[in-house]
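My current task is to audit a protein record that another person submitted. Alongside the sequence sits a line of tokens, each denoting a local backbone shape. Where you disagree with what is written, explain briefly why. This is what I was given:
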Amino acid sequence: MSMDEWLRKYPPENKDEGEGDEASRTHVSKRKLLKQSSQRSLDLHGLTAEEARCEVESFLRSSRKMGLRKVLIIHGKGYHSEGAPVLKKEVLRLLENSPIAGEFGTADRKEGGSGAVWVLLK
């Protein structure tokens, strides 16, 4: 029996049946991605807001070029800042306006907690 005959007699199972449209499959993969550890990280400790801005933009571009999907940006908790934490506010503003950054949120405790943010890249 040829391969074509065998495939007609025993067609492959469609594993995507019942999973819904493309949007729901993307949602499932996003859920899995959120549970995974970050693939790369950037530590901004000791940088000024301007230095951090340049580093974050470069980091996001190079991470996307590398094909990464989830990264971590460590901005610190602001213990050494006068007044409110400077880097955290700057990083969040950058991520909100970035064409590369998708969803983002506070990192798990093991990855820095409130001193770091995970980012899903578009």
Remarks:
- Residues 37-121 form a domain with the Ribosomal Protein S8; Chain: A, domain 1 fold (CATH 3.30.1370.110).
